[in-house]
Write a structure and sequence with these properties.
Elements (H helix, E strand, L loop, with lengths): L12 E8 L4 E8 L5 E7 H11 L2 E2 L16 H9 L1
């Protein structure tokens, strides 16, 4: 029996919404293959819709704001939320 993890499927694309700014920009996380490894992005509404369609993304549920966070769970959005509120 092999203990190797299955290969990462780079055809799968994931998006998790993280916020929307008053000026209409959508904040989101984008991942390829593994939802846990992502980049933070921001696009206007129309560009976001085009991006999601072009990448045929799977939408992920929002993060639980009450879930405990580790030392490495900091995000750039955490810093910008205080600036853009």
């Amino acid at each position: 029996m092999s203990s190797e993890a299955p290969p990462m499927d780079t055809t799968r694309r994931f998006v998790r919404l993280s916020g929307e700014r008053p000026n209409g920009f959508i904040e989101f996380e984008f991942a390829i293959g593994e939802p846990e490894i992502f980049v933070e992005m921001i696009l206007g509404r129309e560009a976001f819709a085009e991006f999601c369609a072009a990448n045929r993304v799977e939408m992920l549920p929002p993060r639980d704001p009450d879930a405990p966070q580790g030392d490495w769970d900091w995000r750039l959005a955490d810093a910008t939320h205080t600036r853009f509120k």
